[in-house]
Design brief:
Layout lengths: L10 H9 L12 H9 L9 E5 L4 H13 L5 E4 L11 E3 L2 E2 L2 H24 L7 H15 L4 E5 L16 E4 L7 H4 L3 H8 L8 E4 L4 H14 L2 E4 L5 E8 L2 E7 L5 E7 L4 H18 L6 H10 L7 E5 L2 E4 L5 H12 L6 E6 L7 H8 L5 E4 L10 H11 L4 E4 L3 H14 L3 E6 L2 H12 L13
Parallel strand pairs: 1-5, 1-6, 2-5, 6-7, 7-8, 13-17, 14-15, 14-17, 15-16
Antiparallel strand pairs: 2-3, 3-4, 9-10, 10-11, 12-13
Helix pairs in contact: 2-4, 2-5, 3-9, 3-10, 4-5, 7-8, 11-12, 12-13
Amino acid sequence: MTSLVASELDAAGVFAALLSRTGEAAPAPRLTATLRALELLGDPHTRFPFIHVTGTNGKTSTSRMAAELLRHQGFRVGLFTSPHLTRFAERIALDGIPVSDEVLGDEWQRVQPTLARVDDELRQSGEPALTFFEALTVLAYQVFARAKAEVAVIEVGLGGEWDSTNVADGSVAVIAPISLDHTRQLGSTLEQIARTKSGIIKPGSTVVTAVQSAAVLDEILAKADSVGSRVLIADHSFGGVSLSRTSTGQDIALRRIDGTTISHTALSLHGVHQASNAALAVAAVDAFLGVSSMSATAVTAALAQASSPGRLHIIGRDPLVILDAAHNPAGALCLAAEMRDWPGVRRVSFILGVLEEKDVVGIVEALRPVASDFFVTQSDSVRAIGHRRLASVVAEAAPGIAVHDFANPIAALAAAREGADRHPGTAIVVTGSITLIGEALHREIEPQPSTLVDPSVH
């Protein structure tokens, strides 16, 4: 473990220290280790109420919008999301801004002796040391407590029941759409995955769920009933629809949990699914505060300023270049639907990089109906599928569609741009993993060398 003093630590230094631990792709199915570290620190996780968010797709966008809504109510808001795109500090934010290097360095130095003590205790009892995400969770809760956050929005890392964020009791449990993903860790059926994710539902809490399949909803309702929690279901208790596209996002309509409506409001995010995510976020905050506490004007102001980098994120206009974090078939289906109807787009070039254990064939089959060609590549992640192997899989899954093979994303993007110059109306979409779009964004917007590899589970 690094011994750098606080003044020498920045976000990258803290990230480097965390990388020495077991990565996010191999979480420990336990809560006791995280609880022990927090206990030694004085239980910082009990010093603020929070909204807990799980699901397969849409949980980061929903979390960001919920935090923005709370911020517009005048609260000091903590936001914990994962993974990050370009800077590790993105994961821990206060009042909409990633925490500073100074805060991260100082708080890391405060928690590091406790983490080392718990590591020793675990090893003595024959258990592995605290993992990357367990230590990160401890750090996040410590940051929020010492910053005197009045409320936090906490996104799970993986699953729910034994995710390290689940050591605290969220008064509102938000469940974004659930589909098959991370099957090695969470189970091979929707029922198993939903059962694990429903583990964030606590006695007396309110559950706010997106539209789910019947099998998933049955698991959510069973868990809520077992602990006495009320359930608010999208398209029944609340809802949101996209009315029209705009140059900066879309115009949406919302129905809130008290039955009142907002007939038109601007949402600064692209994608009809983001209207559903916005409705989920508004319902969660209404359940948390009481619906009468948040005016329609406040909702409108917050959603107009919401952001979710890497989700239908436009980084270029001529040609159109979009980053999207779709990393499973369900996400890819949403992406394909958006590109099919995107104004002015006549063909789509996908720059694709996927991590191991993902359903590559499912992703490609979802994208294939709108794909003009694939520029296959790989990110720097140690878990990235090699570009040559990925190209072979894509060619088999998308017969008749051109597949171009590149060793790195920047070369793939340059080649795709050359192709777009020859074919006006081409949109270039970088997708397949968060590590890939993070790398593309980092090099396109902030062209600096990347020296750390994120062991992201996405």
